[in-house]
Amino acid sequence: MNLKIENPPVTLRELCLEKMRNAIITGYFPSGKRLVERTLCEELGVSRSVVREVIRYLEAEGLVEILPNKGPIVSLLNWDIASQIYEIRLLLEQSAVADCTKNLDENTKKRLIILLEELEQDFSADDINHIIATSAKLYETIFTTAKHHIAWEVVQRLNGRISRLRVMTMKSTKREISGFQRIKNICEAIYLYQDPERAKQAVAEHIAEAAAVAKNILDQN
After folding, report:
1. Confidence class of residue 209 from pLDDT cuts 50, 70 and 90?
2. Residues 63, 161 contacting (CB under 8 angstroms)
3. Which of 24, 75, 151, 154 has the most C-beta neighbours closer than 10 Å?
4. How many domains does the chain divide into?
5. How far apart are CA 9 and CA 116, in angstroms?
6. Do residue 148 and residue 185 come from a single domain?
7. Is 155 in contact with 162 (CB distance < 8 Å)?
8. Backbone angles phi, psi at 174, to 5 degrees
9. Is 63 exposed, middle or buried (0-12, 13-18, 19+ CB in 10 A)?
């Protein structure tokens, strides 16, 4: 007898956490906005205890901060914070794509191609939520194939803030090359050219352009 639960049910807290996280990432709740418990309870249709638990999780992810005598607000995003995130991404992603290229097998190649096709469709449909989800799957494939499991844990902890920056820069018209084309260049360097140095260079170009756009936006705020 197999007692394993293959598809465990999603809890109310997990549903609310996903809703709140996406609301912050996509800008529905802008930077600095106060998160009032009563209002959130009404919008989400849940109890205060669930809202408080979700806020604690979001605080741990760096998406919410608690101010004395004011309560929770959406974390402020400035260039000092963003620049550190881009620096961390550069170090971790360059190393991951290089080792992913070295460890590449047919299954990984097929998965990267499939995810890249999905991502292209997401960009064409301008579907922010799907772009974020598909991008996460693609990067997880790269880090897992590279056997950079601890590095992927670090990326996951930063993922909320990375996604906020990704959405912000995607909305800008000042990108010389689209985010999708940059990611495609990285993937093709891995599975088509199988060139670790080319993959690292593609990562550097992708992050440098995104960082420049982010700096321009944040400096104006």
Report:
1. very high
2. yes
3. 24
4. 2
5. 29
6. yes
7. yes
8. -95, 5
9. buried
